[in-house]
Structures
1.
Amino acid sequence: MSGRSNARKQPKVKEKVIIDENNPMLRAFRAYSLELDAKHDRYERIVKLSRDITIEAKRIIFLLHSIDIRKGNKEKVLEEAQQRLEKVIKVNFKAVAQEMQNLDPYQYRGAYAPGLQEFIEAYSFMEYMRYADDKSTSLDNEASMSDWQQLQEKMQYIEAEANDEIAAEMKEHKFSFHVEPSEYILGISDLSGELMRRCINSLGSGETDTCLLICKVLQHLYKGYVGLSIPRCRELSRKIHTMRQSVLKAEDVCYNVKVRGGEAAKWGLESEKPNVDIDEGFF
């Protein structure tokens, strides 16, 4: 019995596994590991850059909302907003473009899309505020708002790099940030929320003509978006639903203006919420 108990107590000796470092399968998987780690690190860096773009764009939108005809600060605010937006293009989007050089931008679309949409919202809002009081500017004037191709042209970058053969000779290296058209459409759809806020703020400051103009712009945008159909874009229906809510709120403001006239600012919005559950047939 003692012999059996001693045999059971003896630990089993594990066989040492010998790894062949030259195994083609092992070398391939280690290369895949390095490639995936590099991709994940690059993705996280782009996410951080996109957050910086989002934060700055939100600050610029807040700045644009401070425009007040009673203070006469429109030109000053627009100039500052323009300079800050140009800086975002030259610094932040350039850094994102450098990360994605010679790579498929669609692989990192989820990383930079939020920042791009917020920037497009801020840029288009700045352009709207610049042309808002221009009586010669109509709703169909394409020159009043940059399309995605015009933004793409702004995001072209050139860097100087040394030639391998002759170190003293420098050559230009060109690269760009890819502006996805569908992201541009989603960014413009967010503009409706800022226009709605501008409409409500204008009611409080007594700018009833501005309320009516913004309402027409929102109706014009909504009419165009209802007819859109973008494959593999799940966000579009949600954006259109949010846009419709903004249109209804702006129409509620204009209703107060038409019914109550100059006293609309004192009464404010109606206490009842607009019916936003009516199916428009685009879901």
2.
Amino acid sequence: MAAVVETKPVPVEAKPNESAAELPVFNLGSHTPTPITVETSNVSSPPKSLFIVSPTEQGSYPVILFFPGTSISNNAYSQLFQHISSHGFIVISPQLYSFMPPSGNKEVDLAAQVTNWLPEGLKSNLPENVEADLNKLVLSGHSRGGTIAFALSLAYATNPETRLDQFSALVAVDPVGGTNKCTELNPSVLSNNTFDLSFPVTVIGTGLGGVAKYMIACAPESANHEKFYERSKAPKAHFVTKEYGHMDVLDDSPSNFSWVISKCMCANGKGPREAMRTTVGGIAVAFLKDLFSGNLKNGVFTKIVQDPSVAPALLEDVDFAQA
């Protein structure tokens, strides 16, 4: 056991407002999440260090493989992960590199290495009696990490290729395809006119991601969430947290260099980050729970689409295109 360390849019009909408290996905769930850090020196030898947040109660849970943004520590999303995990998910976030992304598509190859390790290596690093259901494997990521999630699903990994090729869904949080040619994958993910994926996609963008705090925006309009949503095939959903910035999904006070990036590099919203995190987490939980229960068209997720005011953060540009 690892050491515990801390297509067409659906017509939307207005429904009577429900408070966020009446939608449990925006509150902590019934499970008790525990953070687990797994280093490459661990006996199970993961290819990259991992930050895992897992329920502690006995059971089998879907797995979310979440890739951090550029130069951000995987544990800088701990509060978001705890929210999601409390609803019955195992969240795994690999630290693919130490500071700056490697050149070319090496980052996607590293992501594939981690993915291929999961069937043999993950079990020994989870709490006792907790099982990972890799038949329900979700790709996710923030910023550049969202791009890596799309790239992995689009078979950009070549050394090695991904053995687990049957992903169930993808949730991208303010994905960015690159702020310039030097930061794009080769070829750029957005050079694909259509993402030919066989599973549903949810893209959550930010209203202030395209606002430059200094010389360049952290999520420029030329490569932002809208571009990823446009290229995705139905079923797909889109949300924008209007009053929040690119880094507001991170912890309130992330450690080390992540704090500098979080507070100084990108435009931030004025509201509490908790509202941003619970909105992102709640949307992800509703999307995945309804998907896995076969109720994506009529469940809690559809309630959020039909009445976005139920979310803790203000949502705009909400769209849900079914297959």
3.
Amino acid sequence: MAPRWKGKSAEAKALEDPMSKIVSQLSSSLTQSNTRGLLTGCSVLIAVEPEQTELLTRACFGRPIINASKDKQWFQLGTEEAFYLQYYLKCLKIVDDDDCEKSSDELWKYMKSKTKTFPDLFKAYSHLRKKNWVVRPGSQYGVDFVAYRHHPSFVHSEYAVIVSSEEDSNGRLRVWSDFYCTIRLCGSVAKTLLVVNISKHGNGDPSPLCLDGYSVQEHIITRWSSEQSREDQTSSENRTNVELFFRRTSPTVSSPQ
């Protein structure tokens, strides 16, 4: 499925302002301002200046919170977003209610305690973010994430992402009905289903260092249509319109920048 740009000039604007450049500017700005985030529940709150507000918005990290202050804007970051800024980009310090800074190991254990599958979700999130995809929550579509080629104001989300793990025997997409329902939903909202499979190779998850031992495989899953191969009578006789095909895409799912 080709990118669905919002307007004739959207693609050109996106190419002129690549996401990698925006994220780099955000990282530098947060580092210079010594930005600190407050850990609260399953999110992190940060108060930022107008410059960081613009960069967070353009880079699609977190969501703004309405407040009465004219000088500061509060943003709420999800766990994957906050840990990505703290651990990989090293541009955000995170503190608890007692104003004690959390190390990466401490933050990792805390987030695992809140979400059992956090290691898998974060590996998938960081994998796509490093490829300059914009990754946003996908709960409204019944998936883990949705992935955009650039800012949502320029383009519609291209992929509905489900994260799976070979070690998780109780995960989704284990039976035919799960596949069918998910693919029908993705089709109705004009998205392609992307399954990101995390292989741990026997490694545990005691600290974020384990992420280096994980590998990622991407699979695009779509519905097979007989109209696409009507001339191939031999191969189509024993197929149906709802047959699935799997196409391994790694490492070709990447940003156009």
4.
Amino acid sequence: MATIEQLGYSAFFIALTCIIAIVARKLNERMSKDGLVKDLFFEAIAAAELCGCCFELIVVADNFGVATYAVFLFALTIWWGRSWGSATACPYTYMEQIVEGEVSMKEAALKIWAQLMGGCAIFRYVQLYWWLELAETHEGRAFEDCKADLQVNLYLGAFIEGFATLCCRLASKVISEKDAKFGAMIDSFIGTSLVVAAFNYSGGYFNPVLATALKWGCAGNSALEHIIVYWIGSCVGAVLSVPLFKTATFREMFLTEKPKAD
């Protein structure tokens, strides 16, 4: 049975990963000139931090339940929002910017490539920690075969990832435009709630880089199935949020101030 001490080893690893990322960002800030290369490093660092922490969150969910996993994810989402700066560690934010005409295809492709490199490379660091087997929850983790999280029909899984991503992006845009008090906490709560809701169906990744770093090649999904669910599903949902957010109906429902009754 998993104990609080073993949970502490997971918490320590997550905290260590965040601290290493802080140091890496400061080094990049000092050593790199302002420009695209600097931004690429920031994206790689953010993706590495995200995926490194989420590898350990799988251990937390498996041994301490989804509720404990949700608490960690909620806190981490707030932390990442405050520490990443302009980095997103998520491909579809740049796809949205392409639709908006804010970034070129080349720049977006390079940043997505940097995210993938950072997210996938971090596993060796995670594997080393698991190999030490400091906690019982890590025994056999370092070299075990992984299993895909998709528990539903392929297209239903893609719909779940896409619809939840659409909801997340719309919520973030509304919170950003309203400049809501406690906006980061509200945004994190919405995102975490959607992840928990989808957890037992598609895994609730809502981020293609995260899904690829954690689950690419795992038993249960082919490469094509993975791309359809976690890349096409999420990205279509995110891109649809751009025109939907601008519609009069949506803005009237969520952004227009309603007159107060006398």
